[in-house]
Amino acid sequence: MRRRNIPLAVGLTLLAGLLILLLLPEVIPLRDPQMATLVAEVGKGVRTPPFSPGEAGFVLGSDSLGRDYLSRLIYGARFTLGLAAAVSLLRGLIAIPLGLAAGWHGGWLRGVTSALSAAFGSIPALVMVALALTALRATVYDPIVWVGVYIAAVVLAGFPRMTEHIARRTREVAAMPHMEAAVAVGAPPRRLLGRHVFPLVADDLLMMMASEMAWSLLLIGQLAIFGIYVGGSGFLPGMTGLPEKIAEYWPEWAAMMGVTRHAVISRAWLPLLPGLALTLTAVCFHMLAEGLRLRQVRR
Amino acid sequence: MSPSQAILRTWISRLFWMIIAAMIILLIAHVPRGFEVPPEHRGKLREPAIQIPRTDPTEPYRIIPMEKAFPPPPVVWSTPGFRFSVGHTVRGLLRGDLQYTNGYFQDSAIEAINRSWRYSLLLFGVGLLGGGALGVLVGSLTAKSRFARFLTTTVSVGGLSIPDFYLVLMGQALTVWTFHNFGFRLWTVGVPGGERHWLLPVVAIAIAPMGYMARLTVTAMDEIMVQDYIRTARAKGLHEVWVVLRHALRNALPRVLNGLPTLVNVTLSSLVIVELMTSWPGLGVLLVPDPISGYDPRIVAATGMVFAVWYAISDALAHTVRILANPLLREVRS
Predict the structure, then answer these.
(1) In chain B, pLDDT over 90 holds for what percent of residues?
(2) Helix (H) or strand (E) holding A35
(3) DSSP H stretches of helix in A121-268
(4) What confidence score (pLDDT) does residue B51 get?
(5) In this predicted model, what pLDDT tens digit does every residue of B60-99 receive, in sequence order?
(6) pTM of the model
(7) Digit-coded pLDDT (tens) for B297-316
(8) N or C: which end of chain B has fewer CB within 10 A?
(9) Which of A76, A97, A65, A86 has the alpha carbon at shortest distance from A21?
(10) Best-predicted range by mean pLDDT (A116-130, B60-74, B117-131)
(11) How far is CA A65 from CA A38, A266, B49, B61, B184, in A?
C-alpha cells in the first residue's frame, strides 16, 4: 500500500492558505492598514483604542493606534513573506553557485567556505545578528536603508552554513559511479556539473529552500522580540504635536508581535494573533521541507 | 585519525574560532560609539519636519511614519571615538573592573555577569539535557505502535515548528486566563521569582531540543528496525521493549548524538529569547539595551563574549561526545 505523505499534504494546504491571504486584498475591500480610529462609540460610552475583537466594528480588534488588526494581519502576509523570501532567495543565490564551485573544484575555495561556515557557526546566528543590528540601528535611520541592512545581516548569518551543505552534497555526488562513467566518455566539466551533478543536488535544494524559509521566519520573529524589526514606527501626535503613542508602521507580523509582546497580560490578542500567523507560516514551510524529505527517502 | 587526535583538533579549532568570534563581537558592539553628531547639530530641539495635521478625533486619521516626521540629526564616523570606546572596554576587561550604566546607576559588568551566568547555565542545562533525553525517549517509542509513531511525529514536528517566543506568549496568556476565570495562577508572569516562575522557561526551552532529538531518533530507528539483527532478536523471543532498548536504541544512539552540536546551537539561541520574555535573571537580559540608560556597548560586548566562550565550550563538548560515540572511531582506538 502506498503510504500517504501527510507532512507534504499539510504543508501544501497551508501554502494554499497563504497564497489566498496574499491575494485577498485584491479581491475583497479591506480598511486601510494605516487608517486610525481615535475614538469610537461602544454601547452608551465612548472608547479609545486599542479596541477588543468585535468592538466598534473591528472584527479582530485594533492596535494601540486604532488601526484595524484584521486588515493589518492580511496585508502583513505580503511584508513578512516578502522579507523571508528575500532572505532565503539571497542566501540561495550566494550559496548555490559558491557551494557547487567549492564542492566541485575543492582547493582554496573549499577552504574559504569551510572557514566561513566555522566562523559564522562559532556563535548562534541569533546572538550575532541581534548584536550587529542593535549596534547598527543607532546609526541607520532611513527605513529603506534599514531594510537593506537587516536583510544583509540575516543573509550573512545563514549563507555560509548553506554553502557548506551544498559543497558537501556536491562532493558526495561527484564521487558517485555515474560520474566516473561520464568522465570516462569525455564529458567536459561544465556538462558534468550541469547535467550530472546539479539534477541530483537540486532535489536537496528545494527541501533546503523550504527549510530556509522556516528558519528565516523564526529568526525574524526572534529578532522582533529583541525590538529589531523593519518598517519603522508610526505615531499618534498629542496636543503638542509630539508623539503620544508609538507603534510599528509597516503591518509586518514579527514587528506587530514584538511591539505588543508586553500587552499579553492585558490585551492578549495583540501579540498572539500576529504570532499565530508567523507560527503557522513557519509550520507550513517546516512541513513542506519534511514532506519533501520523506518523498526523497521513499524514492 | 585516532579519537584523541580528533578531539584535540576539535578543541583547538573551537578555541581559535572563539577568539575570532569574541573579537568580532567586541568590534560590532562598539560601532555606535564610532558615530557622532557634528558639533553644529548638537543640542538642537527636534522639531517635526512636516506639518502634522490636527483632525477632529471622531474622523479617521492616517498614521505618519515617525522617521518622516522627526528626521534624526546627521551623523559622521569618528575613528578616534570608536578606538577610544573599544580601548576603554578592553582595558576594563583586563583590569576586571568594567563599569557600565544600568538605568540611573553605574554597575560593574563583570559583577552583573557573575550574578547572572549561573541562572543561564541552569536553564541551558535543563533545556539541553532534559529536553534532549525526553526527545530520545519519545523518539524510541516509534518502534512500538502506529499511535506511538503518530504521537512521536506530532511531538517532533510540533517541537521544531512552534517557535519558542510563541510558546512563551501562549503560556503567559494561559496563566492570565486561568487566573481571571478560576483564580488559579499556573506560573508568575512578567516578574522574576514568584509561584512556579521556573516552569514556563523550562518548558519553552526544552521543547525545541526535545523535538529535534525525537526527529533524529525516529529517523535512526526507522533504518535500524528493519535490520537483520533486530529480526533475529525478535525470533529469539525477546520482549519488544528489550529489542528496542538493547539492540535498536543502542545502535541508533551514535547517529542521534551526531545532532548534538546543532542541538547546542538551537538551545543557546532559544535561551536568549526565553530569558528575555520570561524575565529570567540570566545573561540574555544583559544583551538588550536598558530602557532608561539606552544602549551601552560595554555590557553588550562583555555578555556577547561570554556567549562566544560558552558556545565554543558546549560545541567542543558536543563534538567530543559525538567522536567518542562513533563506533568507527572506537574500532580505530582498539
Answers:
(1) 30
(2) strand A35-36
(3) 125-137, 143-174, 177-184, 189-191, 198-225, 253-260
(4) 60
(5) 888 888 887 887 778 888 999 999 999 999 999 999 888 8
(6) 0.89
(7) 999 999 999 998 988 998 89
(8) C
(9) A76
(10) B117-131
(11) 7, 16, 21, 10, 33
CA–CA separation, A143 vs A202, rounded Å?
A: 36
| CB spacing of B172 vs A265 below 8 angstroms | yes
Contact B152, B164 (CB under 8 A): no
Question: Is B106 strand, coil or helix?
Answer: strand
Residues 6+ apart with CB under 8 A from A192: A179, A182, A183
pLDDT per residue as tens digits for the range B160-179: 778 899 999 999 999 999 99
Q: Closest to B307 (Cβ–Cβ): which among A123, A221, A242? A: A123
Bridge partner list, B102: B105
In 3D space, the residue among B126, B118, B121 whose CA is nearest the CA of residue B199 turns out to be B126
Give the three-class secondary structure for A51: coil
Count of all residues that appear for chain B in the document: 334
**Nearest CA-CA partner of A261 in A249, A248, A242:** A248
Per residue in A3-30, is it b (16+ CB within 10 Å) or e — as a string?
A: eebebbebbeebbeebeebeeeeeeeee
Considering only CB atoms, B288 lies closest to which of A138, A226, A243, namely: A226
What is the mean pLDDT of the segment spanning B181-189? 89
Find the farthest-apart pair of alpha carbons in chain A and give their distance in angstroms, rounded.
87
Residue with cell 528496542: B244
Distance of CA A296 to the CA centre of its chain: 24
Looking at beta carbons, which residues of chain A come within 8 Å of B52? Answer: 237, 241
pLDDT at residue B334 above 50? no
